[in-house]
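so my prof wants the structure for this chain in the tokens format not the other one, which i didnt know existed until like an hour ago. anyway here's the sequence
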Amino acid sequence: MLPRANNPWTLFEAAHLLNRAGFGGSPAEIQSFHALGRSKAVESLISPAEPLNAFPLPSWCSEEAVLADMRERMEQGRSVKDAKRDITPENAEKAKREASRISQRKNRVQSLEAQAWWFHRMLLTQAPLREKMTLFWHDHFATSIQKVRQPALIVRQNDLFRQNAFGSSKDLTQAVLMDPAMTLYLDTQSSKKGRPNENFAREVMELFTLGEGNYTEQDIREAARAFTGYELNRQNGKVFHNLRQWDSTDKTVFGKTGPFNGKDVIDLIFEKKQAARFLSNKIWEFFVYEKPSETALDALATILQKSDFQTGPLLREIFLSREFYSENTIRSQIKSPIQYLVGLLKQLEITDPPTGFPITAQQQLGQILFMPPNVAGWDWGQAWINTNTLLTRYNLAGFLTKGAGELDKAPKDAQVKTPGMAPAPKNMGRGWQGPDYEKIAPRPLRENPTKLVDSLVFRFFQNPVADKARNSFIDYATSKQGVIFTNKETAELCHLILSTPYYQLC
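here's what i got, hopefully its the right format
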């Protein structure tokens, strides 16, 4: 076990846990969370009362709708193929392009709805760690709408991650083998007896379970033969193992020989000690900081193995540990765009974001839900910040705090360009006037610039800031006080506080 955190359980520690194990919260939410005490607060995250179906999936993600969509796509394909016999090649190509255009338009609409749905869930959920773990698994088992091209399959995979947020990573890896979205993303269904495709065999070892250097190329080649025959049945929407396309001969993987199939290979992988160390390290780095000590990693790997790879006990150990609340950890992590955006909205107590904001902000900052850049997922940490993205964060904070006109001031080159995505619409957030400053900064508080600044510093940083920064905020507030400190001045003060490098950390 890791050394446990000492008492007392401070308000700052409660805010830190809520930031890392979720997406932060308002001062009132932090106070309520702190009142639970450390142990009960951790348990409330790992065993949330909110049901899994609290936010129903989009209607087009139901099993019936998915099957109807698959059949419609198959019928369109057959119709285009049949039409080629009766029309000229030029008209046939035109019909093919038109069918593709209709399909792409439908996919774009559903993709935007899916991204908005998950963002909305992250913002409003009462089970923040479950959504944070869903994001972790989405990055770990990365798949993208851009290749899968059937948004419903990606959303249903997302729900698979949510259902297994605190469960067995071994069972989840087995489920991912049979997941339609992953089957399409890694071309598993093109892997046939005599023509094995190595994609899944390689990624399941390198990215999902063991990491580089813990398998051989021969292991990959042999495992690829075991993963042959897994296909998506578009009549029922399920992945099945087609034994006629499976190489049933003996394979030797990790020194063991037998007529293994894909499930068998995954079982062999999780017999290796490195599987527990690999996942423990990745979860630690996601929630705490990079490169845990060997002692900590050994302890976490042991906990994971003893719990049959259940992630709940591992998370409990991390969140109750002394190191999680150490100076090395608190405010040492650069916020990912999703963490930044959801957290900012929660701190500003905005439950209904401006029209188009969640989608276009993701696009501009370079992390779009359901669209990781490749099978390795997103690059984290310092990769999130450069001159352009930092300026864009400041501009987005200005838009939320001061109103829609702020976006017009943003230079066009201060936005991340994402292939295949349209630029932010000009009417994004039209009419947006900003958050409720009467609630965030009550009028009596504005009469004292120092108290006002300290209140906002806790709201946005949940930790003391350097005297130099605090004094600059106080000086600004004092200079703007005048006869009355209006919402306009309050918005400008909030924007100043949010436009600091320190705010990019959690």
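also thought this was worth mentioning. The longest strand covers residues 230-233.
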